[in-house]
Amino acid sequence: MEEYPAIPSVDAAPNSFFEEGHLWLLEKIDGAHLRFQLQQSGLVCFGDRNQVYDDPDDVPDPYQHVVRHVRANLDREALRNAVDDVEDVVFFGEATHRQTIDYDWDRIPSFLGFDVWSADAGTFRPPDAVQAIFDGIGLESVNVFERERRARDFDPDSYAIPQSAWDDGPAAGVVIRDKRGRRAKLVHPDAGRADGPAPVDVPAEELAARYATRDRLEKIASRLEDDRRPVTFETLYERVLEDILREAHRRLGHGESSVEMDEFRSEVGALTRAFLEDRSNGT
């Protein structure tokens, strides 16, 4: 599966990048790199920045929310109708689980696409095509701050990074693209400077109660019902774990945390069963 090139900072970009043509300014998302490819079999193959996973179940736990999201929303028929060979196309985007910025997790999609590779053309698609492609296959793309801005009118030194589409504060940065395939990034000065997550040092039972709250369980159960999905133990438990790990994977997986994840999962399961029993009894 095609790998994504590193994006240089604006200081390392060639001078001509800001002297000719037009630029697209995209929101830089504080997420985790994800790429995927539809196989001829209909299965979706996923990868992070460094590794490709033949089995979606092998994708690390923090990514499981985005694996489910892509598999559920990808319009396979539309993709097959758009290209001669689906395996010629690789999609790139951000898996939106917690890194530094605490996004509005109920609103931001699990996946936001930012680029598309076409093996047939031997290149990445231009930015105006990328947005249309993701729309056409049922997935959202990253927020576009500006389209077709004259390169000569863009000054990285004076540019104020806009408000994020998914958070109350400014975006993590801006990715700048042109139609020749060149890219650069302008990172917000405060991006990545927040304190790292604190390790967890409480019993699994207490930790599960902290995260698998009744509000969270009810919210996810209601989503399943809205999607006309049965609220079974297996489905609800899986979704609750995904939701927790999306927000708290860095704390739960902290090298100094004392929590045993198997015990934590078991306690979340017990809370899920108790919630469903109470719900069926109308309490």
TrEMBL record:
What range(s) does the RNA ligase domain occupy?
23-185
**Protein name from the UniProt record:** RNA ligase domain-containing protein
